[in-house]
Specification:
The protein is an alpha+beta fold and 119 residues long. It has helices spanning 15-31, 83-115, and strands spanning 4-9, 37-43, 56-63, 66-73. Strands 1-2-3-4 form a four-stranded mixed sheet, covered by helices on one side. Strand 3 (56-63) and strand 4 form a beta hairpin. Helix 1 packs parallel to helix 2. The longest helix is centred in the last third of the chain and has 33 residues, at 83-115. It is elongated. Residues 98-119 are annotated as: Disordered.
């Protein structure tokens, strides 16, 4: 996918996680063709608790004139010890946010078209 940037912090590079991100990004961009680019940051910071290490996933989705930021950092969600689940959750949230923006833009364009004076 063109315009995809993936970074790993506090964790070694994983080809499997990178492939998972590429699949999720590909699905998102095939659904919304106006996406300019996606930046994904995957981290496994040390948490000072007894819950273990929880994944932190941040996404920036570039749209024309706007950037959508998504951060999935659930210190209270033990399921996010699974990096795949944390990535999937972040992309699910991105899908919802981009759809909301897309729907709002489509509605605005539809209103402008229907309100145009007839010739």
């Amino acid at each position: 996918m063109k315009g995809l940037e993936i970074s790993f912090r506090d964790i070694g590079h994983s080809d499997a996680i990178e492939q998972h991100i590429r699949e999720k990004a590909g699905k998102l961009t095939s659904t919304f063709d106006d996406i300019i680019g996606i930046r994904a940051v995957v981290a496994m910071p040390h948490n000072h608790s007894s819950k273990g290490k929880l994944a932190h996933v941040s996404l920036e989705v570039g749209l024309p004139g706007q950037t959508v930021a998504i951060t999935r950092d659930h210190h209270d969600n033990p399921e996010h010890e699974d990096m795949y689940l944390a990535v999937s959750d972040a992309f699910d949230k991105a899908q919802r946010k981009v759809k909301k923006i897309h729907d709002k833009r489509s509605d605005k364009n539809r209103r402008v078209t229907t309100m145009a004076p007839a010739e």
